[in-house]
Write a structure and sequence with these properties.
With about 180 residues, this protein is mainly alpha-helical. It has one domain. It has 6 helices and no strands. It has helices at about 1-25, 35-55, 60-80, 85-110, 110-140, 145-175. The protein is globular and about 55 Å long.
């Protein structure tokens, strides 16, 4: 079960991370919601850490925090290349959130808490956009039906829900070491 859960976490992190990156670079109205795409990109990175920790529970926490920093720096170096205060605040915040979640997992002696928190953040970040997409699909103006549009959204949510359920089961069934 542990290998299956770790594989689901990593696959979900890669798929949702890609779409979070796409959302980050998609023009939007902005306003007060400019942090939302960053959250859609950050939660999968935390889930990736949870997937790695599921495979290797004895992994050093410093290396995992360093991995998060390296992913964020590589994203900046390859895609942004410009000083963005918003992105740097997000990057530093995500590194500290990752460190905090790893410290919490160590304090509880349950590595599963990382994946549980990451899947909850992932669900919370993608839910509003998905509800809007489903509403636009089912109640279009003007009326039109395009079933191939809904399939990617359903597949996307199948991954997120599966990862969430597995992380919840693993967390509540794990024994304290």
């Amino acid at each position: 079960m542990r290998r299956l859960a770790g594989t689901i976490y990593i696959v979900t992190a890669l798929v949702t991370g890609y779409w979070g990156l796409v959302a980050m670079f998609t023009p939007s109205g902005g306003g007060g919601m400019f942090w939302w795409p960053l959250t859609m990109f950050g939660a999968p990175i935390l889930l990736l850490v949870g997937g790695i920790l599921t495979f290797f529970p004895q992994a050093k926490k410093g290396w995992l925090v360093g991995l998060v920093g390296a992913i964020l720096f590589a994203t900046w170096a390859t895609l942004i290349r410009d000083f963005s205060l918003t992105y740097w605040i997000f990057a530093v915040g995500l590194v500290f959130v990752t460190l905090g979640v790893l410290v919490l997992a160590s304090a509880l002696t349950r590595t599963e808490v990382v994946a549980l928190i990451a899947t909850l953040a992932l669900t919370a970040s993608w839910l509003p956009g998905s509800v809007n997409a489903a509403r636009a699909y089912f109640f279009p103006n003007p009326p039109s039906v395009n079933p191939p549009v809904m399939f990617p959204l359903l597949a996307f949510w199948a991954l997120i829900i599966t990862a969430s359920v597995l992380s919840g089961i693993a967390f509540f069934r794990s024994s304290r070491a």
